[in-house]
Write a structure and sequence with these properties.
Elements: E1 9-14, H1 17-33, E2 38-42, H2 45-49, E3 53-54, H3 67-71, H4 73-89, E4 94-98, H5 101-113, E5 118-121, H6 133-140, E6 143-146, H7 149-157, E7 162-164, H8 168-172, H9 179-186, E8 193-198, H10 203-223, E9 227-233, H11 236-246, E10 254-258, H12 261-267, E11 270-274, H13 278-284, E12 289-293, H14 297-306, H15 314-319, E13 326-328, H16 334-346, H17 348-365, H18 369-383
Parallel strand pairs: 1-2, 1-4, 2-3, 4-5, 5-6, 6-7, 8-9, 8-11, 9-10, 11-12, 12-13
Length: about 375
């Protein structure tokens, strides 16, 4: 690829760690093409290590939930106003908002109106709920970069320029994972039958799903005493909560880990997992899974009415059919979850078929995402 000696200046806003990873991959790919690349906006440690300049600390944008963003709203609005004025006064060749749609889309719209080319990296789940946002997206971005193929199809249907770049995690995770080494590291024997339990990373998830998953583990263990379980905690806070929960389950052989979800998944035969982004990693590791979720009754009533897809887990969304069981809300009982898990042990052909499907999906997503994203950036700049 030809190297362009002309300096390229881009504005970037990444609001959380996952966006920083994507941004760093894109910057590294662009630096091969533009050695004098200049990047400024809001960046995390990985992007900063590649020379990006951050006008505000990334953690100021890293807020979750309903209440916390409202408490921080004046500060967030001030940051967005400052960024908008900065980029209008000093127009970059391109502005890229990485995820964080509630913050970035309004900023992108202002900059697009001011004549600055805009790109958004990681589609909001507009195909699943709040579909009316597509009009706002169309007015805010010149080009959308999606990680998943069905997202790109949705944007094409709505005449929004789009490129499916693939998923960086699919590039990072090898097509075949060393289960033997993972089990050795965790102290499991090679012929052990191991189930990984992943009840989520947020406090509310762990409080609702942690006891339920442990009850399902107990139900399975009572029927199959040879089963062992591994439970990775997302962080130190979740570790303390899960330790408290485990006091009531001393009869169940559970290995509790702080972090190391990748290792736990790699070592497992099958997985009981909360619906969320971790289902993608589980799929890429070719692990048969049972997907579960519970939320407050009122929240579920509202959410289920807004949903425009029959599935919530990424494997089923990618396949556009039910590959793995999704057991939600009132159906999510220890008996239902346990029975679905044991089915994988009882029917090896089912597990084999699922692993072949997951391998094909892995290869579909394995597209060298950062390089494809950089190609799309170059094409948009050339068109401008």
């Amino acid at each position: 690829m030809a190297v362009n000696e002309k300096p390229l200046r881009i504005g970037v806003v990444a609001g959380e760690a996952s966006g920083d990873i994507l941004g760093a991959g894109l910057i590294a790919a662009l630096q091969k093409r533009f050695p004098q690349l200049q990047v400024e906006g809001i960046a995390g440690p990985r992007m900063l290590a590649l020379g990006a300049h951050s006008l505000f600390p990334m953690e100021r944008l890293s807020v979750m939930g309903l209440v916390e963003p409202l408490k921080r709203l004046p500060e967030l609005l001030k940051i967005r106003r400052t960024l908008r004025q900065h980029f209008i006064d000093n127009p970059p060749d391109l502005f890229i908002g990485i995820d964080s749609p509630d913050f970035n889309l309004s900023l992108e719209k202002s900059l697009k109106v001011a004549g600055i080319a805009t790109m958004h990296y990681v589609s909001p789940s507009v195909w699943a709920w709040r579909r009316g946002r597509i009009k706002k997206i169309a007015g805010a971005v010149d080009h959308m970069l999606t990680l998943l193929p069905f997202e790109a199809s949705f944007y094409r249907e709505h005449n929004v320029p789009v490129t499916f770049v693939g998923h960086p995690l699919a590039d990072e995770i090898p097509l075949q994972v060393d289960m033997t080494e993972a089990r050795r590291e965790l102290g499991f024997a090679q012929d052990d039958r191991v189930v990984a339990l992943l009840p989520g990373s947020r406090g509310g998830e762990v409080r609702l799903l942690g006891p339920l998953f442990l009850q399902a583990a107990r139900w399975c263990h009572q029927r199959r005493p040879e089963l062992k379980f591994v439970l990775p905690a997302a962080n130190e806070l979740r570790l303390a909560e899960l330790q408290d929960q485990l006091e009531s389950f001393a009869d169940v052989p559970v290995t509790l880990l702080e972090g190391n979800s990748h290792l736990a998944l790699s070592a497992a035969d099958n997985v009981l997992i909360a619906s969320g982004t971790a289902t993608l990693e589980t799929m890429l590791l070719k692990k048969p899974m049972v997907v579960a979720y519970k939320m407050a009754r009122l929240s579920y009533a509202i959410f289920s009415r807004m949903l425009h897809t029959p599935w919530v887990s990424l494997p089923n969304l990618l396949a556009q059919r039910e590959l793995v069981p999704e057991i939600l809300q009132d159906d999510a009982t220890p008996e239902n979850l346990g029975a679905a898990l044991l089915q994988y042990f009882d029917d090896p052909l089912l597990s084999d078929r699922l692993q072949r499907e997951f391998d094909a999906m892995h290869q579909q997503l394995r597209r060298n995402a950062s390089e494809r994203a950089a190609d799309a950036v170059c094409k948009l700049i050339e068109r401008r």
